[in-house]
Amino acid sequence: MSDAGNRFRTMLGHRLFWPVAVLVVMLAANTIYRPGFLAIEVNNGHLYGTPIDILRLSAPLILVALGMTLVISTGGIDLSVGSLCAISGAIACLYISRAPDQNNLVTVLTALAMALGVALVLGAWNGVLVSVIGIQPIIATLILMVAGRGLAQLIAEGQIITINSGPYRAIGLGHLLTLPLAIFIALAAALLVAAFTRRTALGMIVESVGGNREASRLAGIRSGRVVFLVYVVSAACAAIAGFMMTANVSSADGNNTGLWVELDAILAVVIGGTSLAGGRFYLGGTILGALIIQTLTTTVYAMNISPQTALLFKAVVVIAVCLIQAPAFRAKFRRRRPGAPPPPQPSPQRQKEQVPA
Amino acid sequence: MSTFPISAPSWAKLPRRHMPVLATLALLLVMYGIGVSQYRAFSNVQVVFNVFIDNGFLLVIAVGMTFVILTGGIDLSVGSVAAMTAMVSAWLLQSGLPALLVLVIALLIGPTLGFLMGCAIHFFDIQPFIVTLAGMFFARGMCTFISDASIPITDGFWTTMSQYRIGDPRGNFVSISVLVAFAVVLIAAYVLAYTRLGRNVYAIGGNPQSALLMGLPVGRTRIAVYTISGLCAAIGGILLSFYTLSGAPLIAIGMELDVIAAVVIGGTVLTGGSGYIFGTVLGVLVLGVIQTLITFDGSLNSWWTKIVIGGLLFAFILLQRLIGIRYK
């Protein structure tokens, strides 16, 4: 009895318990509301269905959120990812639209390489501002967030660039092994990041820099270089997400590509249990967070509520998840039930003098 | 002088604290000078008045944001709250409530939301960034929840406030919104400089730990600044509805960025503890003059506004860094 209770309490204390619970509750509510929700059918050798759609549409968000997780774990934040999505999408689409043969694979690859290159340079700009000049991350990336939208519009000359390129479209809508290609791209990126951070010391180094930059430097870690690197990685992730977003609609709109994706990405990271103060990161939690956000969006669309009103639900979910995860809230909640043994502490949150945002 | 040989003369010490504000002032004068030298009509006094008329609501909201940023926090919800205030007042007026009652209700929504966000930030120790982000989503969602389309305002009081011109015989004028904005600026400047609340705001921004140990009411002040920011956003929303004579669900998207940019260009340090309301006024004016310059030029496209604002943000942050104001 008490053993089962303990196990339950351990589960309750697990950092992924609440995100998973929220996701399951949302899926269950959807299935009750619309019994066909979880149905998946095979059509033309490809799988179709709402769950597949959710996975496909969440791919760009997962990518952006992966980069954001690393940035946030160093105690920073990257507000420029949405603009970077717009810039990379605009460059790729511009190059393809000017090419004589839009379906040429070499053309598409050149376009992707060029756009990725520009994104890396812009990521390096962010990195230099934060690590070398020492500007507060939220402001350093705010510069590119504001100016980047202007740059994207400048590249597209204020127009929406439409293209008709098979290979480029495949990034967003193609299939591989019956599943959408986008899922595999996001999955590959996630595995790559996980391998580099969890199979080598890099992840530990990133976390230690987030915990205390100066102490890490004194311990022999090149803190500046690590901070620089995470912004470049974040920019690369954003660029690939930008390709997906523009490939989905075969056009690039400097104004609207990736609009507010930085906020969604930060939410995904926070829902996943990564603290904005830095020092810890959970890639699995981030992916769950991205799925929760996309499920919520899809749910709201399915219920025929306008996309803007969906923000209302997003606000409620955000506050609920944050409150549940806030140590202060848990402590208050626990005090109301005297007698019960204190459940195991979920990774103790360190107090910081100042929060970065 | 001879009695204090060690200390530098007072005029040499002054600039360090006032440098960002002075730089903004210099930039503003240079930009205005460029405008006057390039375009003949620019020297018209009405151009300056128009900058105030077009940016009155931005000014009020930026004042609220200055309070929040001075404590080291941030409020992302202001643009949405302003839009929600305009939307609610348009909706209530449409359903036939008297103008005065609508005004009171509309002005209560913002502070209430701000108070709740402040409580969440203080009592549950959640990042201001996330809490106000949720507030932003909530307010924007409420806008479309009220109506998907924009609601026109035909109420007599509103149209009078919108169209009434206070001017001199030569035809230059300002709107009532500008006077309201000036009143808000003066009150805020007084509160920050001469009241206990204002000094607490600076103290908490400087170092919350020390402020707490000194016995200052950190929690109360922190909740108060978000409430003030909400109130300013609500007043800004009312001014916005005077300006547009409608409530539109998608208005003021991204305004929080303009506001933050204005506050930073005005010399307020984002880690808190240093900055002036006067600087914020200058920051808003800089943004306004940039827009006016680009409108006057005609050949430049609107996206240059964003690129220039980004460049200015960079320049000012670099300046603050160079003169050694604490940046973390």
UniProtKB/TrEMBL annotation, chain A:
Annotated region described as Disordered, given as residue ranges: 334-357
InterPro entries hit by this protein: ABC_transp_permease
Pfam families: BPD_transp_2
One GO cellular component, as annotated: plasma membrane
One Gene Ontology term of the molecular function aspect: transmembrane transporter activity
Coiled-coil segments on the chain, per record: none
Main location: membrane
Keywords attached to this entry: Cell membrane, Membrane, Transmembrane, Transmembrane helix
Membrane topology per record: Multi-pass membrane protein
Subcellular location: Cell membrane
Name of this chain's protein: Sugar ABC transporter permease
Originating species: Micromonospora sediminimaris
UniProtKB/TrEMBL annotation, chain B:
UniProt keyword annotations, A-Z: Cell membrane, Membrane, Transmembrane, Transmembrane helix
UniProt keyword Kinase, yes or no: no
GO-annotated cellular components: plasma membrane
Localization, UniProt: Cell membrane
Source organism, top-level taxon: Bacteria
Xref: Pfam families: BPD_transp_2 (PF02653)
Gene Ontology MF terms: transmembrane transporter activity
Chief subcellular location: membrane
InterPro entries per UniProt: ABC_transp_permease
Membrane topology: Multi-pass membrane protein
Transmembrane intervals: 21-41, 47-69, 99-124, 131-153, 173-193, 223-244, 277-296, 302-323
PANTHER family xrefs: ABC TRANSPORTER PERMEASE PROTEIN YPHD-RELATED-RELATED, INNER MEMBRANE ABC TRANSPORTER PERMEASE PROTEIN YJFF
Official protein name in the record: Sugar ABC transporter permease
Organism: Micromonospora sediminimaris
